[in-house]
Design a protein that fits this description.
- The protein is mostly helical.
- It has 20 helices and two strands.
- α18 runs antiparallel to α19.
- The chain starts with a helix and ends in a 10-residue tail after the last helix.
Length: 437
């Protein structure tokens, strides 16, 4: 096993060096930093696997898979998306020229101060900003894959399933496109959402609620899993005293910004400006609003109507799950999490295509633990790639347009199948369990 790990790490060095040397921007310490990042990342993965994997074949498969996926990510590091050109690069410039950390006393973006602080730290590192954004997201891609395989380990003792889960999550096309191509950061808050589910199932409720608060601090869309929080509470996995850690952790993440001079009202109302930032009922996402005749209903009508509809649907799902007197096993909890993560962006108005990111990850975990549901992962991945390609490569659009009326049916089919699966499981389940300690 040690020999396999050493050979795998040694084999990655020339490939990483070759791709790093081919990057367009090589000023300062950019190339060495990127090389060191991937080298340390691979070393960390291999060391963790060495402590747990008993099969040299599995270790070799993991090493080869991680190397290939990292190389594919590196290949896209020079790509500059519209989000990078119009937003990320500007935020970096304003924070950099405004004094780094102390510039975040005033908002520079429509993100929370926690992400702005990460950008501020990035300005002190001698690396081209495009690569800085992407390396940050890739780091959380790896951490997200770690939590995913830990969730899989709670369902099965198969080491092969854990390796497969890690590779599928790290190599998921939509995840790689989000971080290495787009330069976006959705893996950050999704990583903490997976940690929340993991720690709750492990009966570590305080830690679970704390990481959920951190997820919200990174991105507002983490609240899509708030119904799951209350379901954990209703099923006595969490108490109200545990849930107090959610706002506590959120506020703790804002302390550095307050120290740097950010007004407290900005911390409290950080997300208020995002609520009505876009006056569109949908933004490049295939959902229920694809089926409405274009131009017949106004945004002023559809927005409140959509909010009520989404609330009614999610409340109905939550109530149905709460009324069940049966015990929730691992599969029930994972399917419930996926159902909430899917239903929110499908029924809510003003949604973006990237808001389905957590469901792309959760459905892949579900597919590894329940292979018969792999079709769900295929449906959602196809839908996501259609929407991503339409934005990232408008001149070379893949598959189907996000405006096509067929795409929402794929998501709706998954929602219906999850509902049926949960009903079937709970109708055959056992009596409810005990409360957390």
């Amino acid at each position: 096993m040690p020999l396999t790990g050493i050979l795998g790490l040694a084999a990655s060095i020339p490939f990483i060096l070759r791709l790093v040397s081919a990057l367009d921007y090589r000023e300062a310490a950019t190339a060495p930093l990127i090389f060191v990042f991937f080298l340390l990342a691979h070393l960390g993965i291999f060391f963790y696997a060495y402590k747990r994997l008993r099969s040299a074949a599995l270790f070799g498969a993991l090493a080869a898979g991680v190397l290939l996926i990292s190389l594919l990510r590196l290949y896209w590091f020079d790509f500059q998306s519209l989000d990078y050109k119009n937003a990320l690069a500007y935020w970096y410039y304003v924070i950099d020229t405004g004094g780094g950390l102390f510039s975040i006393r005033e908002p520079k973006s429509n993100y929370n101060s926690l992400y702005e602080m990460l950008i501020a730290f990035m300005t002190y590192v001698p690396i081209f900003k495009l690569y800085g954004f992407k390396l940050l997201s890739v780091f959380f891609d790896i951490l997200m894959a770690f939590f995913a395989q830990e969730l899989i380990a709670r369902r099965t003792d198969s080491q092969g399933a854990r390796v497969l889960g890690f590779l599928l999550i790290y190599g998921l096309p939509s995840a790689a496109a989000n971080s290495a191509v787009w330069g976006q950061c959705d893996s950050i808050y999704t990583c903490f959402l997976l940690a929340f589910i993991l720690y709750t199932l492990d009966q570590k409720p305080k830690r679970a609620c704390a990481v959920f608060g951190i997820a919200i601090a990174f991105k507002l869309q983490a609240v899509f899993l708030f119904p799951l929080v209350f379901l954990f509470w209703g099923k006595r996995r969490l108490r109200l005293s545990h849930m107090a850690w959610i706002p506590a952790a959120y506020l703790a993440t804002q302390v550095p910004a307050l120290v740097c001079g950010m007004p407290i009202h900005r911390v409290v109302t950080a997300y208020m400006g995002q609520v009505n930032l876009y006056q569109n009922v949908r933004l490049n996402i295939p959902n229920i609003y694809n089926w409405l005749p274009q131009g017949t209903l106004t945004f002023d009508f559809l927005n409140p109507f959509g909010l009520l509809l989404a609330f009614a649907v999610i409340a109905a799902i939550w109530t149905g799950l709460m009324l069940s007197k049966k015990n929730f096993d691992y599969d029930c909890w994972l399917e419930a999490a996926l159902l909430f993560a899917l239903a929110a962006p499908f029924f809510l108005p003003q949604m973006h295509e990237r808001y389905t990111y957590p469901s792309d990850i959760l459905v892949m975990i579900l597919a590894v633990t329940q292979p018969r549901k792999m079709y769900m992962a295929a449906f959602l991945q196809f839908t996501t790639l259609c929407t991503y390609s339409a934005y990232l490569f408008p001149d070379y659009r893949l598959f189907v347009s996000p405006d096509d009326k067929m795409l929402p049916w794929l998501t709706l089919m998954v929602i219906i199948q999850l509902t049926v699966s949960l009903h079937t499981r709970l109708s055959k389940g056992m009596d409810s369990g005990t409360s957390p300690e």
